[in-house]
Specification:
Layout (H helix, E strand, L loop, with lengths): L10 H7 L1 H9 L3 E2 L2 E2 L2 H4 L3 H6 L2 E6 L2 H17 L3 E5 H4 L10 E7 L5 H12 L3 E6 L5 H5 L2 E4 L12 H21 L4 H22 L2 H11 L4 E6 L3 H16 L2 E6 L16 E5 L7 H16 L3 E7 L11 E5 L7 H19 L18
Parallel strand pairs: 3-4, 3-5, 5-6, 6-7, 8-9, 8-10, 10-11, 11-12
Antiparallel strand pairs: 1-2
The structure holds 6-O-phosphono-alpha-D-glucopyranose.
Length: 372
Protein backbone atom coordinates (compact mmCIF):
# COMPACT_ATOMS: atom_id res chain seq x y z
CA UNK A 1 0.00 0.00 0.00
CA UNK A 2 0.90 3.69 -0.11
CA UNK A 3 2.76 3.54 3.22
CA UNK A 4 5.06 0.76 1.97
CA UNK A 5 5.77 2.93 -1.05
CA UNK A 6 6.88 5.78 1.19
CA UNK A 7 4.37 8.16 -0.38
CA UNK A 8 5.46 7.33 -3.93
CA UNK A 9 3.04 6.07 -6.55
CA UNK A 10 5.06 2.89 -7.14
CA UNK A 11 7.74 0.78 -5.54
CA UNK A 12 9.93 1.51 -8.52
CA UNK A 13 9.75 5.27 -7.87
CA UNK A 14 10.61 4.70 -4.22
CA UNK A 15 13.48 2.40 -5.12
CA UNK A 16 14.92 4.88 -7.64
CA UNK A 17 15.08 7.48 -4.87
CA UNK A 18 16.72 4.98 -2.49
CA UNK A 19 19.84 4.65 -4.63
CA UNK A 20 22.03 7.03 -2.62
CA UNK A 21 21.51 4.91 0.52
CA UNK A 22 21.68 1.62 -1.40
CA UNK A 23 25.11 2.46 -2.78
CA UNK A 24 26.35 3.85 0.54
CA UNK A 25 25.27 0.62 2.26
CA UNK A 26 27.13 -1.47 -0.30
CA UNK A 27 30.32 0.50 0.33
CA UNK A 28 29.99 0.57 4.14
CA UNK A 29 32.47 -1.59 6.02
CA UNK A 30 34.52 -2.24 2.90
CA UNK A 31 36.50 0.97 2.70
CA UNK A 32 38.90 2.49 5.15
CA UNK A 33 41.79 4.94 4.99
CA UNK A 34 41.69 5.21 1.22
CA UNK A 35 41.72 1.48 0.51
CA UNK A 36 39.15 -1.19 -0.25
CA UNK A 37 39.06 -4.38 1.76
CA UNK A 38 36.14 -6.76 1.31
CA UNK A 39 36.26 -9.18 4.26
CA UNK A 40 34.43 -11.90 2.29
CA UNK A 41 37.08 -11.80 -0.45
CA UNK A 42 39.94 -11.53 2.02
CA UNK A 43 38.67 -14.79 3.54
CA UNK A 44 39.54 -16.57 0.28
CA UNK A 45 43.20 -15.81 0.98
CA UNK A 46 45.43 -13.32 -0.82
CA UNK A 47 47.42 -16.11 -2.45
CA UNK A 48 44.36 -17.55 -4.13
CA UNK A 49 43.36 -14.12 -5.42
CA UNK A 50 46.86 -13.52 -6.75
CA UNK A 51 46.75 -16.64 -8.90
CA UNK A 52 43.49 -15.77 -10.68
CA UNK A 53 44.25 -15.37 -14.38
CA UNK A 54 40.74 -14.92 -15.77
CA UNK A 55 37.42 -13.56 -14.56
CA UNK A 56 34.06 -14.47 -16.04
CA UNK A 57 31.03 -12.49 -14.91
CA UNK A 58 27.65 -14.12 -15.36
CA UNK A 59 24.11 -12.85 -14.91
CA UNK A 60 20.79 -12.28 -16.65
CA UNK A 61 18.94 -9.12 -17.59
CA UNK A 62 19.89 -6.05 -15.62
CA UNK A 63 22.44 -8.04 -13.61
CA UNK A 64 24.30 -8.89 -16.82
CA UNK A 65 24.53 -5.20 -17.70
CA UNK A 66 25.91 -4.42 -14.25
CA UNK A 67 28.39 -7.21 -15.00
CA UNK A 68 29.39 -5.60 -18.29
CA UNK A 69 30.05 -2.29 -16.55
CA UNK A 70 31.96 -3.99 -13.74
CA UNK A 71 34.08 -5.83 -16.29
CA UNK A 72 35.62 -2.61 -17.61
CA UNK A 73 36.67 -1.60 -14.09
CA UNK A 74 37.91 -4.99 -12.87
CA UNK A 75 40.05 -5.43 -15.99
CA UNK A 76 41.41 -1.91 -15.64
CA UNK A 77 42.23 -2.12 -11.94
CA UNK A 78 43.16 -5.78 -11.46
CA UNK A 79 44.72 -6.28 -14.92
CA UNK A 80 42.97 -9.63 -15.31
CA UNK A 81 41.16 -10.44 -18.56
CA UNK A 82 37.44 -10.23 -17.81
CA UNK A 83 34.58 -11.43 -19.93
CA UNK A 84 30.85 -11.31 -19.40
CA UNK A 85 28.46 -14.07 -20.35
CA UNK A 86 24.74 -14.51 -19.99
CA UNK A 87 24.20 -17.25 -17.42
CA UNK A 88 22.04 -19.34 -19.78
CA UNK A 89 24.66 -19.23 -22.54
CA UNK A 90 27.63 -19.96 -20.29
CA UNK A 91 27.42 -23.73 -19.88
CA UNK A 92 26.46 -24.52 -23.41
CA UNK A 93 29.71 -23.18 -24.79
CA UNK A 94 31.79 -25.63 -22.80
CA UNK A 95 33.77 -22.79 -21.21
CA UNK A 96 37.44 -23.21 -20.34
CA UNK A 97 37.51 -23.18 -16.53
CA UNK A 98 40.42 -23.89 -14.19
CA UNK A 99 41.13 -23.32 -10.51
CA UNK A 100 42.61 -19.98 -11.60
CA UNK A 101 39.30 -18.81 -13.08
CA UNK A 102 37.09 -16.61 -10.94
CA UNK A 103 33.42 -16.77 -11.85
CA UNK A 104 31.51 -13.81 -10.43
CA UNK A 105 27.75 -14.25 -10.54
CA UNK A 106 25.53 -11.18 -10.29
CA UNK A 107 21.95 -11.69 -9.13
CA UNK A 108 19.65 -9.46 -7.15
CA UNK A 109 17.48 -12.34 -5.95
CA UNK A 110 20.21 -14.95 -5.72
CA UNK A 111 17.60 -17.43 -6.96
CA UNK A 112 17.61 -17.00 -10.75
CA UNK A 113 17.74 -20.59 -11.99
CA UNK A 114 19.81 -19.86 -15.08
CA UNK A 115 22.46 -18.19 -12.93
CA UNK A 116 22.32 -20.85 -10.20
CA UNK A 117 22.89 -23.61 -12.77
CA UNK A 118 25.82 -21.69 -14.25
CA UNK A 119 27.35 -21.26 -10.77
CA UNK A 120 26.97 -24.99 -10.09
CA UNK A 121 28.67 -25.71 -13.41
CA UNK A 122 31.54 -23.38 -12.46
CA UNK A 123 31.91 -25.11 -9.07
CA UNK A 124 31.96 -28.57 -10.70
CA UNK A 125 34.72 -27.39 -13.02
CA UNK A 126 36.90 -26.07 -10.20
CA UNK A 127 36.52 -22.31 -10.60
CA UNK A 128 36.54 -19.88 -7.67
CA UNK A 129 32.97 -18.62 -7.33
CA UNK A 130 31.99 -15.21 -5.99
CA UNK A 131 28.35 -14.18 -5.65
CA UNK A 132 27.24 -10.55 -5.88
CA UNK A 133 23.76 -10.78 -4.43
CA UNK A 134 21.17 -8.57 -2.75
CA UNK A 135 19.04 -11.14 -0.91
CA UNK A 136 20.57 -12.45 2.29
CA UNK A 137 21.03 -16.22 2.45
CA UNK A 138 19.72 -16.86 -1.05
CA UNK A 139 20.76 -20.06 -2.80
CA UNK A 140 23.47 -18.62 -5.09
CA UNK A 141 25.51 -16.90 -2.33
CA UNK A 142 25.19 -20.03 -0.16
CA UNK A 143 26.57 -22.22 -2.95
CA UNK A 144 29.44 -19.86 -3.78
CA UNK A 145 32.94 -19.68 -2.27
CA UNK A 146 32.40 -16.05 -1.31
CA UNK A 147 29.33 -13.82 -1.09
CA UNK A 148 29.62 -10.06 -1.54
CA UNK A 149 26.18 -8.75 -0.57
CA UNK A 150 24.97 -5.50 -2.06
CA UNK A 151 22.85 -4.41 0.96
CA UNK A 152 20.56 -2.31 -1.25
CA UNK A 153 17.53 -3.35 0.81
CA UNK A 154 14.51 -5.26 -0.52
CA UNK A 155 13.66 -4.48 -4.14
CA UNK A 156 9.95 -5.01 -4.85
CA UNK A 157 9.40 -3.57 -8.34
CA UNK A 158 10.02 -6.12 -11.08
CA UNK A 159 12.24 -3.69 -12.97
CA UNK A 160 15.55 -3.49 -11.13
CA UNK A 161 16.88 -0.05 -10.17
CA UNK A 162 18.71 0.25 -6.85
CA UNK A 163 19.98 -3.32 -7.09
CA UNK A 164 21.64 -2.38 -10.39
CA UNK A 165 23.60 0.57 -9.04
CA UNK A 166 24.51 -1.45 -5.94
CA UNK A 167 25.74 -4.32 -8.15
CA UNK A 168 28.00 -1.98 -10.11
CA UNK A 169 29.31 -0.64 -6.81
CA UNK A 170 30.03 -4.15 -5.48
CA UNK A 171 31.84 -5.12 -8.69
CA UNK A 172 33.97 -1.97 -8.50
CA UNK A 173 34.86 -2.79 -4.91
CA UNK A 174 35.87 -6.29 -6.02
CA UNK A 175 38.03 -4.76 -8.76
CA UNK A 176 39.73 -2.45 -6.28
CA UNK A 177 40.27 -5.24 -3.76
CA UNK A 178 41.79 -7.50 -6.43
CA UNK A 179 43.92 -4.65 -7.75
CA UNK A 180 45.32 -3.95 -4.29
CA UNK A 181 46.04 -7.60 -3.47
CA UNK A 182 47.65 -8.17 -6.85
CA UNK A 183 49.62 -4.93 -6.76
CA UNK A 184 48.20 -3.71 -10.07
CA UNK A 185 46.74 -0.48 -8.78
CA UNK A 186 48.70 2.32 -7.15
CA UNK A 187 47.70 3.90 -3.85
CA UNK A 188 46.62 7.15 -5.51
CA UNK A 189 44.23 5.45 -7.96
CA UNK A 190 42.80 3.41 -5.09
CA UNK A 191 42.39 6.54 -2.95
CA UNK A 192 40.79 8.46 -5.84
CA UNK A 193 38.25 5.69 -6.37
CA UNK A 194 37.50 5.56 -2.65
CA UNK A 195 36.91 9.30 -2.72
CA UNK A 196 34.52 8.87 -5.65
CA UNK A 197 32.55 6.38 -3.55
CA UNK A 198 32.40 8.86 -0.68
CA UNK A 199 31.07 11.63 -2.93
CA UNK A 200 28.65 9.34 -4.74
CA UNK A 201 25.54 9.44 -2.48
CA UNK A 202 25.31 13.22 -2.78
CA UNK A 203 25.72 13.07 -6.55
CA UNK A 204 23.10 10.32 -6.80
CA UNK A 205 20.73 12.53 -4.82
CA UNK A 206 21.25 15.26 -7.39
CA UNK A 207 20.71 12.80 -10.27
CA UNK A 208 17.44 11.66 -8.66
CA UNK A 209 16.31 15.28 -8.94
CA UNK A 210 16.30 14.93 -12.74
CA UNK A 211 12.79 13.52 -12.21
CA UNK A 212 10.80 16.68 -13.01
CA UNK A 213 12.66 17.36 -16.23
CA UNK A 214 12.28 13.73 -17.31
CA UNK A 215 8.57 13.75 -16.46
CA UNK A 216 8.06 16.66 -18.87
CA UNK A 217 10.11 14.97 -21.55
CA UNK A 218 8.18 11.72 -21.15
CA UNK A 219 4.91 13.61 -21.46
CA UNK A 220 5.42 14.50 -25.11
CA UNK A 221 7.08 11.17 -25.88
CA UNK A 222 4.29 8.93 -24.55
CA UNK A 223 3.36 7.71 -28.01
CA UNK A 224 6.92 7.00 -29.17
CA UNK A 225 7.07 3.69 -31.01
CA UNK A 226 10.80 3.21 -30.62
CA UNK A 227 13.58 4.81 -28.62
CA UNK A 228 17.30 4.30 -29.11
CA UNK A 229 20.11 4.66 -26.58
CA UNK A 230 23.75 5.24 -27.42
CA UNK A 231 26.82 5.00 -25.22
CA UNK A 232 30.53 4.28 -25.38
CA UNK A 233 32.74 2.30 -22.96
CA UNK A 234 30.80 1.96 -19.67
CA UNK A 235 28.10 4.09 -21.30
CA UNK A 236 27.37 1.21 -23.68
CA UNK A 237 25.94 -1.23 -21.11
CA UNK A 238 24.23 1.76 -19.50
CA UNK A 239 22.50 2.33 -22.85
CA UNK A 240 21.49 -1.34 -22.94
CA UNK A 241 20.01 -1.00 -19.46
CA UNK A 242 18.09 2.17 -20.43
CA UNK A 243 16.58 0.28 -23.37
CA UNK A 244 15.73 -2.75 -21.23
CA UNK A 245 13.89 -0.60 -18.68
CA UNK A 246 11.72 0.87 -21.43
CA UNK A 247 10.89 -2.54 -22.89
CA UNK A 248 10.13 -4.01 -19.48
CA UNK A 249 7.71 -1.47 -18.09
CA UNK A 250 6.58 0.77 -20.98
CA UNK A 251 6.39 -1.98 -23.64
CA UNK A 252 8.15 0.28 -26.11
CA UNK A 253 10.62 -1.06 -28.60
CA UNK A 254 14.02 0.17 -27.50
CA UNK A 255 17.60 -0.70 -28.32
CA UNK A 256 20.94 0.26 -26.90
CA UNK A 257 24.00 0.54 -29.11
CA UNK A 258 27.69 1.13 -28.69
CA UNK A 259 28.08 4.59 -30.21
CA UNK A 260 30.98 3.45 -32.40
CA UNK A 261 28.79 0.73 -33.89
CA UNK A 262 26.31 3.25 -35.23
CA UNK A 263 27.99 3.60 -38.61
CA UNK A 264 28.10 -0.19 -39.00
CA UNK A 265 24.34 -0.57 -39.22
CA UNK A 266 22.08 1.10 -36.67
CA UNK A 267 22.36 4.54 -38.27
CA UNK A 268 20.03 3.20 -40.97
CA UNK A 269 17.28 3.26 -38.33
CA UNK A 270 17.54 7.01 -37.90
CA UNK A 271 14.92 9.08 -39.62
CA UNK A 272 12.98 12.21 -38.85
CA UNK A 273 11.94 12.50 -35.23
CA UNK A 274 13.53 9.24 -34.00
CA UNK A 275 14.26 9.80 -30.31
CA UNK A 276 17.82 8.91 -29.31
CA UNK A 277 19.25 9.19 -25.82
CA UNK A 278 22.99 9.74 -25.96
CA UNK A 279 25.15 9.18 -22.89
CA UNK A 280 27.97 11.65 -23.27
CA UNK A 281 31.23 10.90 -21.43
CA UNK A 282 32.96 13.67 -19.54
CA UNK A 283 35.06 16.07 -21.66
CA UNK A 284 37.37 16.54 -18.64
CA UNK A 285 38.21 12.93 -17.84
CA UNK A 286 37.56 11.26 -21.22
CA UNK A 287 38.22 13.93 -23.88
CA UNK A 288 38.82 11.46 -26.70
CA UNK A 289 35.65 9.46 -26.07
CA UNK A 290 33.76 12.70 -25.55
CA UNK A 291 34.69 14.11 -28.93
CA UNK A 292 33.79 10.82 -30.65
CA UNK A 293 30.36 10.80 -29.02
CA UNK A 294 29.78 14.44 -29.95
CA UNK A 295 30.47 13.58 -33.59
CA UNK A 296 28.06 10.63 -33.28
CA UNK A 297 25.45 13.13 -32.13
CA UNK A 298 26.15 15.34 -35.14
CA UNK A 299 25.74 12.35 -37.46
CA UNK A 300 22.35 11.32 -36.10
CA UNK A 301 21.13 14.89 -35.83
CA UNK A 302 21.94 15.48 -39.47
CA UNK A 303 19.63 12.55 -40.25
CA UNK A 304 16.74 13.96 -38.27
CA UNK A 305 17.11 12.27 -34.87
CA UNK A 306 15.61 13.94 -31.84
CA UNK A 307 18.62 13.94 -29.52
CA UNK A 308 18.31 13.79 -25.75
CA UNK A 309 21.86 14.25 -24.47
CA UNK A 310 22.83 13.15 -20.98
CA UNK A 311 25.89 15.22 -20.11
CA UNK A 312 27.92 16.32 -17.15
CA UNK A 313 27.16 19.81 -15.88
CA UNK A 314 29.14 22.46 -17.71
CA UNK A 315 29.53 20.49 -20.95
CA UNK A 316 28.14 22.91 -23.51
CA UNK A 317 29.63 21.20 -26.56
CA UNK A 318 26.41 19.33 -27.39
CA UNK A 319 24.07 22.28 -27.04
CA UNK A 320 23.98 23.12 -30.77
CA UNK A 321 22.97 19.54 -31.66
CA UNK A 322 20.74 18.39 -28.81
CA UNK A 323 16.99 18.87 -28.50
CA UNK A 324 17.08 18.19 -24.80
CA UNK A 325 19.98 18.18 -22.36
CA UNK A 326 19.97 16.37 -19.03
CA UNK A 327 22.76 17.58 -16.78
CA UNK A 328 24.38 15.39 -14.15
CA UNK A 329 27.05 16.02 -11.49
CA UNK A 330 30.71 15.61 -12.38
CA UNK A 331 32.21 12.16 -11.79
CA UNK A 332 35.12 10.03 -12.99
CA UNK A 333 34.39 7.87 -16.03
CA UNK A 334 33.69 4.66 -14.11
CA UNK A 335 31.21 6.45 -11.87
CA UNK A 336 29.20 8.00 -14.70
CA UNK A 337 26.91 4.98 -15.32
CA UNK A 338 25.68 5.13 -11.73
CA UNK A 339 24.45 8.66 -12.37
CA UNK A 340 23.44 8.34 -16.02
CA UNK A 341 21.13 5.39 -15.46
CA UNK A 342 18.92 7.36 -13.06
CA UNK A 343 17.27 9.64 -15.67
CA UNK A 344 16.83 6.55 -17.87
CA UNK A 345 15.04 4.76 -15.01
CA UNK A 346 12.79 7.78 -14.48
CA UNK A 347 12.10 7.96 -18.19
CA UNK A 348 10.86 4.36 -18.36
CA UNK A 349 8.77 4.90 -15.24
CA UNK A 350 7.20 8.08 -16.57
CA UNK A 351 6.40 6.58 -19.97
CA UNK A 352 4.87 3.54 -18.29
CA UNK A 353 2.77 5.83 -16.10
CA UNK A 354 1.76 8.00 -19.06
CA UNK A 355 0.52 4.86 -20.83
CA UNK A 356 -1.50 3.89 -17.76
CA UNK A 357 0.49 0.70 -17.17
CA UNK A 358 1.33 -1.08 -13.94
CA UNK A 359 4.86 0.18 -13.29
CA UNK A 360 5.71 -2.39 -10.64
CA UNK A 361 4.12 -5.47 -12.19
CA UNK A 362 4.69 -5.46 -15.94
CA UNK A 363 2.94 -8.09 -18.00
CA UNK A 364 4.70 -11.42 -18.64
CA UNK A 365 7.61 -10.71 -16.28
CA UNK A 366 8.54 -12.05 -12.85
CA UNK A 367 10.86 -10.49 -10.29
CA UNK A 368 12.76 -13.70 -9.94
CA UNK A 369 12.77 -16.37 -12.63
CA UNK A 370 13.24 -19.71 -10.92
CA UNK A 371 12.89 -21.88 -14.04
CA UNK A 372 15.49 -22.46 -16.73
C1 LIG B 1 14.21 -11.19 -14.14
C2 LIG B 1 13.82 -9.77 -13.79
C3 LIG B 1 14.92 -8.80 -14.21
C4 LIG B 1 16.23 -9.22 -13.62
C5 LIG B 1 16.59 -10.65 -13.99
C6 LIG B 1 17.77 -11.17 -13.20
O1 LIG B 1 14.15 -11.37 -15.52
O2 LIG B 1 12.58 -9.42 -14.40
O3 LIG B 1 14.58 -7.49 -13.75
O4 LIG B 1 17.24 -8.34 -14.06
O5 LIG B 1 15.52 -11.53 -13.68
O6 LIG B 1 17.39 -11.27 -11.85
P1 LIG B 1 18.43 -11.49 -10.69
O7 LIG B 1 17.59 -11.69 -9.44
O8 LIG B 1 19.23 -12.71 -11.02
O9 LIG B 1 19.28 -10.28 -10.62
Amino acid sequence: DAADKGGWSSFMAKEITEQPEAVANTVRGRVSAGTVEIPELAALGAERLQTIDRVIIIGCGTASYAGMIGAYAIEQWARIPVEVQLSHEFRYRDPVLTDRTMVISVSQSGETMDTLMAVKYAIEHGAVTVSVCNSQSATIPRESDAAVYTHAGPEVAVASTKAFTAQITALYLIGLHLGRVRGTIDAQTQADAVQQFELLPEKLREAVESHDQIAQLAHWMADSRSVLFLGRHVGYPTALEGALKLKEIAYIHAEGFAAGELKHGPIALIDHGQPVFVLVPSPRTAPLMHSKVVSNIQEIRARGARVIAVVEKGDTSVLPYADDVIRLPLADVFFEPLLQVIPLQWFALELSTAKGLDVDQPRNLAKSVTVE
